Amino acid sequence: MSITIGVFDSGVGGLTVVRELKRLLPAQPLIYFGDTARTPYGTKSQETIIQYAREDTRFLLERGAGILVIACHSAASTATSTLRQEFSEPIFEVITPSIEQALALTKRKIIGLIGTRATVTSGVYEKAIHARMPDTKVYSQACPLLVSLVEEGWLKARESRMIVKKYLRPLKNRQIDTLVLGCTHYPLLKQTIQEKIGKNVKIVDPSAEIARAVYSYLESKNQLSEKLHGRGDRFFVSDLTPTTQEVVQRFLGTRVQFEKTSLSCRD
Amino acid sequence: MSITIGVFDSGVGGLTVVRELKRLLPAQPLIYFGDTARTPYGTKSQETIIQYAREDTRFLLERGAGILVIACHSAASTATSTLRQEFSEPIFEVITPSIEQALALTKRKIIGLIGTRATVTSGVYEKAIHARMPDTKVYSQACPLLVSLVEEGWLKARESRMIVKKYLRPLKNRQIDTLVLGCTHYPLLKQTIQEKIGKNVKIVDPSAEIARAVYSYLESKNQLSEKLHGRGDRFFVSDLTPTTQEVVQRFLGTRVQFEKTSLSCRD
Which of B77, B117, B74, B51 is nearest to A243 (CA)? Predict the structure, then answer.
């Protein structure tokens, strides 16, 4: 019996994580839930994000997920400890693996982080980095506009390049040598980010890191699926607009058959 | 007995409408609901926006609103006809008064509209304008990034000016002579918008228009309040973050005492 991976995100950005998971674990069954009816999470309060993450988790577990991946950085930084207390299934999140990677890469021990306001405010990255390597300096920058720029598809636009530069300037001034992309949307701007922060700064893309962590876990438990079974992966969203597929194409490089579901109150 | 005005919006942008209402109707009791836990509406599907608008309406009516103002353009353009079928209270929305004003102002009968994707996709402005003046040309442009720019507080930033210019270029090429600001956030960028669209183009700010419409209605029913009664206006939101007050200051020019409420499901 294969373990099903349940992945949730505030929207469809978490499909960057799915892409990496499928690259490493093509036969492992997967269920995705994107809370597109309440997206984004990154501008909302901790209390609200925790409540949403709890509902998302319950949805995936009810549909057979055996391990959980929090693809949303805002939810990962805010809700992980609560979810681990409330649910017994193993819960992976995008933050820890990218921190490990950043610590492995940094030479000068000066790490930068960019993310949503919720992620940056949580201070989770700083705490986790200092717990492992107390003399490391961590500088964070909230970049609220980048999600909108990616969803608008302005990946190479001059305006986007200027905005990226403006957000990264304080981190550049701090001479960071490693930069963590603390939001599922940012890898799509990676080229511009690399250019503006400088080519010597190493960029950590959490999607790749978390896929490796999940792979190791399943391997250690001898539960890697080697053959595809059943009906295949399922992709749920709480809202579906005419532009959803267009955005998905950007994240996943392919289209997906979505099933629409609702977590909100019935009358 | 004074009629209480109930105003809802997807977030706090609708406070621009409140500001105008209080200017004309300082003593009229008012309840506001901002659905900050699910904001924004403008990127979501029609079905979801209608459901949210229904819940917002019910919330305000249960708390004593006697007339309703839909301050959110995405909800106004998508949900008004459904709400009017389902509720018997008079429902005002931001669109009709601004269309009347645009038709009064346009000389060449070429009107431009900017708004969220939901507002533009709805086609409501075009339909309403053509119903009144069939030979008028209407050109619409979705400007999804402007809401984020306003919430980030980049009102005069160079990046914002470039983005406004980029969005307005197609409308400028069409030689519109009147531009409707179809989103509560846009009046904060009015100066930049005026500069980029050209000083001869007349700009219609719906907040001022809807306040006039509500005033006329109450006056015609002889229900204008002349003295302040009771506990005063109440402001509800479904989520409250550390930056909410900062954003509110931008819209209203003053702070507000918010009461947090929840429309979402209980466990």
Answer: B117
User: Shortest Cα distance from B239 to chain A (angstroms)?
Assistant: 7
Residue A143 annotated among the catalytic residues of the structure: no
- Whether residue B265 is contained in a domain is answered as no
ipTM of the shown complex? 0.89
Interchain contact A142–B (C-beta under 8 A): no
Tokens of A155: 């990946």
Does some domain include residue A266?
no
pTM equals 0.92
Q: Are residues B194 and B163 in the same domain?
A: yes
**Which residue in the set B152, B163, B239 is minimally distant from A144, CB to CB?**
B152
Q: Which domain holds residue A23?
A: 5-93+208-260
Q: Could you tell me if residue B266 is inside a domain?
A: no
CATH number, domain containing residue B253? 3.40.50.1860
pLDDT by position in tens, chain A (length 267): 689 999 999 999 999 999 999 999 999 999 999 999 999 999 999 999 999 999 999 999 999 999 999 999 999 999 999 999 999 999 999 999 999 999 999 999 999 999 999 999 999 999 999 999 999 999 999 999 999 999 999 999 999 999 999 999 999 999 999 999 999 999 999 999 999 999 999 999 998 889 999 999 999 999 998 877 666 899 999 999 988 888 898 888 888 899 999 875 433
Question: Is the domain of B123 the same as that of B200?
Answer: yes
Of B145, B166, B242, the CB nearest to A148: B145
DSSP code of residue B187: G
Q: Helix H segments across chain B?
A: 15-24, 46-62, 73-86, 95-105, 117-122, 124-132, 145-152, 158-173, 190-197, 206-220, 244-252
